[in-house]
Model the fold of this input.
Amino acid sequence: MNKNYYITTPIYYPSAKPHMGHAYSSIVADFFARFKKMEGYNVFFLTGTDEHGQKIQRAAEKNNKKPLDFCNEISKTFLDLTKTLNLSNNDFIRTTEKRHHNSVQKLWSILESKGEIYLSKYSGWYSVSDEAFYLEDEIEEKNGIKLAKQSGSQVEWLEEESYFFKLSKWENKLLELYNNNENFILPKSRRNEVVSFVKSGLKDLSVSRKSFSWGVQVPTNKEHIIYVWLDALTNYISALNYPNTDDNLYRNYWPADLHMIGKDILRFHAVYWPAFLLAADLPTPKRVYGHGWILSGDEKMSKSKGNILDPIEIVNEYGLDPLRYYLLKEVSFGNDGNISKDKLISCINSDLANNFGNLCQRVLSFTEKNLSLKIPENYYFNKDDLNILNNFTNNYENLIQNINNQNINAYMNFIVENMFLANKYFNDQEPWKKKNDIKRLHTIIYTSLELIRKISILLYPVIPNSSLKALHIFNLDEKNINVDSIKDNEFLKPNLSINKIKILFNKINNDD
Done:
């Protein structure tokens, strides 16, 4: 039986260029995608841009451009970011594509034919910035301006003819979904938030607009544009060639294993999306994970606040892998985090240059001097060697479980701990004093090389470029690395020639 795994990022709203929050979601999703590939899964990893709605139309008008021309320009910056961040995505979907339009209109037609959609009139608070409707108790007034409490975005009173989705009808079915699968929404704090919201009572949802034209038309009424979130959420199945449910992509990968999103769009993914799917008799995703924000100071990044952190600037100054490593290690996954220049430099110098890079250089130099860059053949493990090598074997199931539970921090802590232990092992064993004990000398070298191999494999989803450079020592590349091999203490074949590599990470002087 084939092992398939489908992971998605949110599709990003290209009203402005990408910021660090977009990069964070993408890097996290890429981390899981790469690990599952290394675990032997056929992974389908999707990202893209959500290009419809009033916010986009207004942004285009402000820039004196047609909406599609505006989207083409901004969407390209998000597409370019996938390359800058070295993402392993299989597809990049745009909601302006014909394949997506067809899927959205088909889903609408199914919902309408099942009596899940009706025409009425909407009156209430709407945020153009969030493309979201808000109830009275979700609104507050500051300096005479009405704002959504959750996002701080300005809201305006809206009254117009609208189609409605019978969201209230699905309240009990949604609660049943959450109860039957306790891990459908993670982390637990987000699950509690969603359950509480649904239990407080759901109202029918306005799913069309007449006041603007930039979007997918309602197939049976050209005056109406389909609500941008019903449109956008459908990307997860339109990328799998829905409505062709016999297509291999759809059959192999739906339902999605993991929707990776920011906490601010949790309600859309954990309430509206499964309700739409249940109403259309389609399977719901297996999990929605709402991670925290990457803050600028103590605030969420936004164009209006002028506090955008540009990931490309950080990559250009410090390198991609150091940024990936920092975000995955230093941010408490599920909670908010921020970028600190001092902590980033500390990560580069302490973890990457000292612990990992220095380990590789020391062991390689010693192997070159004593064995002409050959894997030792005259080795025999003692208790010290097996203790550190078996640390990987004994923790293998825990590592897999951490990945399956999206426990990034436990995974990263294991790597950091073992980089430290590997260096300590090499220092404590003092191979330079074992020149007269060839078997012991060879065993220390063999064990140290195996530790480098194991750590490099676990680092692959985190810092893929640097990990592959380290794995080149052993002539390993992406095609022949798998996580299962970290359980093997004698993977390296005696007398095999290994390669010298350049310094992986240069230390950074913090002059500030």
Notes: The chain has a mean pLDDT of 93.
